[in-house]
Write a structure and sequence with these properties.
The structure holds 3 protein chains of 3 kinds. Helix content of chain A is 49%, strand content 17%. Chain A has one domain (6-126): STAS domain (Transcription Regulator spoIIAA, 2-Layer Sandwich). In chain A, strand 1 and strand 2 form a beta hairpin. Chain A starts with 5 loop residues before the first strand and ends in a 7-residue tail after the last helix. Chain A is α/β, with parallel strands linked by helices. Chain B is built from 4 helices and 5 strands; from the N terminus they run E-H-H-E-E-H-H-E-E. In chain B, strands 1-2-3-5-4 form a 5-stranded antiparallel beta sheet, with helices on one face. The radius of gyration of chain B is 14 Å and the shape is globular. By secondary structure, chain C is an alpha/beta fold. Chain C has helices at 6-13, 15-29, 35-56, 70-86, 90-98, 101-111, 115-158, 180-197, 214-230, 241-250, 263-273, 282-291, and strands spanning 163-166, 169-175, 201-208, 233-237, 258-260. In chain C, helix 6 (101-111) runs antiparallel to helix 7 and helix 8 packs parallel to helix 9. The chains are: A alpha/beta, B alpha+beta, C alpha/beta.
């Protein structure tokens, strides 16, 4: 079965989704990514969806899951290259992709990842608010 | 008066079938000369409902058609299953994506993405949903 | 099957006379006619008469939905279409058919001795021509609607320009009323421009939009949301006091959108967010010092 290739770029991982994904492929992508994040101590994941002509709630949930899992593993996620027609349809569909960072293309996505990583490190130093203090 | 020009039926049993149905919908939309946004809306709505049929309807069929009326042409997709049915259709349509209850995720969205939307469902018997988008 | 009546007979025997009288009448109604238009009318009239003769020869006078009436209707459709495009009024166009009544009536009177038969024939003629006249008006309407639709499309394409204000900042000055169809085109154009110019910021200026109702406000919100999904930031400027009131009264939630009264203000915000600022050069500093 084909798997979506994951490229290592410095401390980041780059994933390019080009095919019309079915469930098994999406699940294996999540598995592979989490494995690779840990293996390479990756600080960020860039998901390039510029070839995707459709994003439905399933793919939306997948992106959300990836961002969530990555965060738990101390990696930031940015989704790049959403096509205008996809964006318009998602808005109409009511899917907000809240909590998922987005950027126009890979270059801007990388810049966004770098600043997200920095922000995260600063936040780490401060720590989350302790409700008992 | 809406007339059917072409019709294709697909079995919806597993997630691979979802891809086949939405690709068929895409092909038809392209062949009718739909703009890119309209194409995407048809395909996305189809994907949502196809997924519902597989995940909640226990599988079923999708009938993909090109239709015509006096003014223009359109793509219509009808989903039929013999699953548990929907007890409260109004509720299912109103549920947003955050509800987590499942069924509502696709229905309301698919309706918003379509020009015409019909649904009939009976608990214990099954569900039939039809969406249509004109060029 | 209706019997072959007086009307059909008259169409067959006296058609040439009817046409010449008819053309004379038409000339009285439609004033400004160029030679080519006159030729077209003459030809159409002769063709129409011939088609009318064919259609009525088997006796069907009242029901124009049958196949034998297709050629007649086709001539009327063509004529209506060309007149609609040429700027004729609906009346002038329909008069093509209605002006045929007089010559038919006078010939019928000359041909028919029996008062009852005459009455019947005139009734048949007038009913038939009324139907054909109405058909002409409807064809005319349809063509006019097609012309308007095409012009609207062209207007749409002309009036939604996306302007590149600065590196990374686009502006979309909207002018005129925003209906559903126009807004969708506008949205698409803006989003595609964002991708093409790789701009992180887009300012939608609505100074030139006279009315903002719920639908317009929703469309604006959708555009902002879509741009955000793509990774760009969208601001709205040009909110006039009345518009601000309308938006609040409509209950539209713009709290998550940056809104500014002027395009200039929005531009300044975009620049700052982009990490840029407008500074005084030495030249300006010197000028101000000299003027002090």
């Amino acid at each position: 079965m084909e798997r979506i290739p994951i490229l290592k770029m410095g401390e980041f991982l780059l994933v390019t989704i080009q095919v019309d994904m079915h469930d098994r492929l999406a699940l294996s992508l999540q598995d592979d990514l989490t494995e690779q994040i840990v293996k390479h101590c990756a600080k960020g994941v860039l998901i390039d969806i510029s070839s995707l002509e459709m994003v439905d709630s399933f793919i939306g949930r997948m992106l959300g899951s990836i961002a969530g899992m990555a965060r738990l593993l101390d990696a930031q996620t940015v989704v790049v290259g959403m096509q205008p027609s996809v964006a318009i349809t998602l808005v109409e569909l009511g899917l907000s992709l809240e909590g998922i960072r987005t950027a126009l293309d890979v270059e801007k996505g990388m810049a966004a990842l770098k600043s997200a990583v920095m922000e995260n490190e600063i936040a780490d130093d401060d720590g989350p608010d302790n409700p008992n203090v | 008066m809406t007339t059917v020009q072409t019709t294709q039926t697909f079995e919806l049993k597993a997630s691979d079938d979802i891809v086949a149905v939405r690709q068929a919908a895409r092909r038809l939309a392209v062949s009718l000369g739909f703009g890119i946004v309209d194409q995407t809306k048809v395909v996305t709505a189809t994907s949502e409902l196809a997924r519902n049929t597989v995940d909640y309807g226990g599988g079923g069929v999708a009938i993909v058609e090109t239709v015509r009326n006096e003014r223009t042409a359109g793509v219509r997709v009808t989903f039929e299953d013999h699953g548990p049915g929907i007890a409260d259709v109004e509720q299912a349509l109103a549920d947003g994506f955050t509800s987590g209850s499942g069924m509502g995720l696709g229905l309301g969205g698919a309706k918003r993405l379509s020009h015409e939307f019909e649904i009939s469902s009976k608990v214990g018997e099954g569900t039939r949903v039809s969406i249509l988008r004109w060029k | 099957m209706p019997k072959k009546g007086k009307l059909s007979e008259v169409f067959t025997k006296r058609d040439a006379e009817i046409v010449s009288q008819w053309l004379e009448n038409q000339g009285k109604i439609t004033k400004r006619v160029s030679p080519s238009e006159q030729n077209e009318t003459t030809r159409a009239s002769k063709d129409f008469m011939a088609a009318l003769r064919e259609a009525t020869k088997d006796g069907e006078i009242s029901d124009i939905s049958g196949r034998e009436w297709e050629p007649v209707k086709e001539i009327l459709s063509e004529l209506s279409a060309s007149r609609a495009k040429a700027g004729y009024s609906p009346s002038e166009t329909a008069s093509f058919v209605f002006s045929l009544k007089e010559p038919i009536f006078s010939i019928l009177r000359a041909e028919t001795q029996d008062a009852v038969a005459l009455g019947e024939a005139i009734w048949e003629a007038t009913t038939l021509l009324d139907k054909l006249g109405l058909f002409t008006v409807e064809s005319f309407q349809k063509t006019r609607e097609e012309v308007i639709a095409r012009q609207q499309q062209e207007l749409l394409e002309l009036s939604t320009p996306v302007v590149r204000l600065w590196d990374n900042v686009l502006a979309l000055p909207l002018i005129g009323t925003l209906d559903s169809q126009r807004t969708q085109v506008v949205m698409q154009n803006l989003l595609e421009a964002i991708v093409a110019t790789r701009s992180d910021f887009a300012i939608i200026d609505i100074t030139g939009v006279p009315v903002v109702d719920t639908l317009v406000a929703q469309h604006l919100l959708k555009t902002v949301s879509a741009a955000r999904l793509m990774g760009a930031d969208c601001l709205i400027s040009g909110i006039r006091p009345q518009i601000a009131q309308t938006i609040i009264h409509l209950g539209v939630d713009l709290t998550n959108v940056t809104t500014k009264a002027t395009l200039a203000d929005a531009f300044a915000v975009a620049l700052r967010r982009n990490g840029q600022a407008v500074v005084k050069t030495k030249k300006l500093v010197a000028k101000e010092a000299a003027e002090a």
